[in-house]
Amino acid sequence: MKPSHEAGGSVHSYIVVALVLAVITYMEFALVEYDFNFLSPQAVIFWLVLLSVIKFALVVLFFMHLRYDSRILSGLFGSGLVIGVGMVLALSLIFAAFQGLSLAQESAGGEAEAAAEELIAERSLLERFLYPAPKDFGLDVSPTLPPPEIVGIKGELNLALTLPAEEAVGSEAAPPSEISAVAAFDWQELGASTYGNCAACHQPTGQGIPAAFPPLAQNLPLLYNAEGGRAYLISVLLYGLQGQIDVLGQSYSSVMPAWQQLSDEQIAAVLNHSLTSWGNDDLLADFNAIEPAEVAALRGQDLGPQQVLELRQQLVLE
Amino acid sequence: MNHTAAHGVAEPLEHRSTNIPDRKILMWAFLGSDVMFFGALIASYVVYKGRSLTGPYPAEILDIPLTTISTFVLLMSSFLMVLALHALRENDIPRFRLWTFGVCLFGAIFLGFQVYEFRAFFQEGLSLQGNLFGSTFFLLTGTHGVHVSIGVLWLMSLLIGSYLRPIIRKDALNLEIAGLYWHFVDIVWIVIFTVVYLVEFV
Description:
The complex is a heterodimer. Chain A is mainly α. Chain A has helices at 11-33, 41-63, 71-108, 110-130, 149-155, 164-173, 180-183, 188-194, 196-202, 219-225, 229-239, 264-276, 292-298, 305-314, and strands spanning 245-247, 250-252. In chain A, helix 1 (11-33) packs antiparallel against helix 2, helix 8 (188-194) packs across helix 12 (264-276) and helix 11 packs antiparallel against helix 14. Chain B has one domain (17-47, 62-201): Four Helix Bundle (Hemerythrin (Met), subunit A). Chains A and B meet through helix 1, helix 2 and helix 3 of A and helix 1, helix 3 and helix 6 of B.
């Protein structure tokens, strides 16, 4: 009996396979590099995938001898291949579906969002009329007004955990004060859920990752206390930040992406959340919660991340 | 050639129900699992494709002519690999050494292209933590580069070993298994070349 791995491989067949591989590689290069006007982009992708599948199969069947080898080996490799390809396809589908869902929700929620924004703008005007310098927002929990609709629309897309237990404790602990409750921008819950976007880099503890992502704990109060720091913090969220910065004695040069896709309420809420978490509230000189209207006022400046860096360099930090 | 088993230098295939050397089955099982490993890395590249919030973006920095050459080099190293195994089975030791050296050389050239590419990309501002493209690209191609490096070291050790001790029939099995690994590294690159590089420019 002749061992299976001795069969099927002649130098002649190897040369033919190698030539075919070389020609296919050149065809792939040509498909991408030269214009084939008669081919649609979909057709080009189809051919590219087909050609690489042929290359893949040629190497596996002839160079790796699977064509002549035991079926056990094909089964071992094939099952891994099926699972691997299935994983790529499944993940692609899940991500595509998820993106489609969020787009649909955004367009469906457009009107409700506009109405909610109007409501919030009104409330903040009323609130500013009644309380020019509101204090102790942390204790004001609105017992009468439900959170604006926008919370539900965007909040569902955030992967962050919102803790209903915490909410319940909050509303029990805070005695409902009649007028201030109507006026307050209720950012607690929205801030905590929006922070889910930030936690991947800045960590749930606000400590960041040394040398990669700067901490928010201890750092934000320094920025907030500086003159112009309030607007700077909002600008970082709206326009991102790029370039080397020093934070608490450590140098960072990662990129902070812009978060313009968040609503004014979400940006104000997440800033208030971060400014009052992780012991930051003890370091604030005089905390007035950031209002959605302030965020709205800074939108539309079209700053770049480098310009935000310049804003930062103008801050006088203690 | 199975009669050489009687001399006690070959693996006694007769004792196995599968009639396949254990280590060869092991290598194929490993390759099956490695497909899933690369599947995860390719999937992470694909699902985050086009979602980088900041540049540099793939179409700005990927270089198709350069990568086509390095792809060609890797494919031809696979060709030399089968020639090396064929020569060893034919007991043509000088050719076996020549082709195996060729595989190592081509593998090293491919790695040289990759080092050059990584350096150029890094100077353009692409980094592991800068954006999603950088993270997924360097993770995927970097892992592949590590596989290529292991393959080069493995084949070099077989080449050096052929000078240090007499060549026995078992060496053909060793070379065949190393060759399977080498071809696998090649087919992974075939997929990466299409998914990461070519499709970007359609």
